[in-house]
Fold this protein.
Amino acid sequence: MTTDSLSAGDDPHRLLSDVRDLADRVRRDQRLTWVALLVLAAVTFVAVPFDWLFMKVQCDGDGCSFARRGMLYYWPPALLLAYTAIAVSYVRAARARGLGARVLPYAITGAATAVVLTAAYTAAAAYFPSHPPFGGGPMPFWWIALDRLIAPWGLIGIALLVLARLERNVALLLFTLGYLALVLLVLPTTEGMGLPDWMIPSFLSGADSQLRLSMTSPQLVTGTVLLAGGIGFSQARRRQR
């Protein structure tokens, strides 16, 4: 009794399965999700001192008003540099394996978000001082959430959706949806809130400093989430190897 081996080429179904498995392994090998998240986390953390130093705050008996000029000075060039660095990392990793990189749409989306951010903040700075929305009264939640969506951390989430599609990365998609939910639903309810007195050092106890601190917290939260995501995806990649 003899046993004849059957090559994959003799079985179209098996050959197709092998091709799909190989394509899936190639896609997983091309993923540098952790690099993208760590770069974006670093950019977000570095933004904090820029926002603090260049924020214009005026406080009087009626309260405080502010203009976050650091947002416009820092984020557009920072986003362009960040997405360039991410794209270069993907291309180098792909070439080292003799593969092609499909990161260009992600880089283009990232660059487009920098343009959208610049246009939105320039228009807002020119229009809203003389035309306060809702007559200067309380803003509805949807307006604040929309503002968060076109903020740098919201635009980062939109670009990550593109990256998840390019990588066919379900884990990144779920992470990004959770990240956007945090940005759109949680951060709008906390930004601008005063911090407890015990959390504020004595040399930062003034209304000016407290406002700056309250505006810093969303950036620290989003930076921490991106950092945790980058570390998590890096550990997952190591386990897969």
In short: Residues 207-240 form the longest helix (34 residues). Residues 31-240 form one domain. The chain has one domain: 31-240. The longest strand covers residues 55-60.
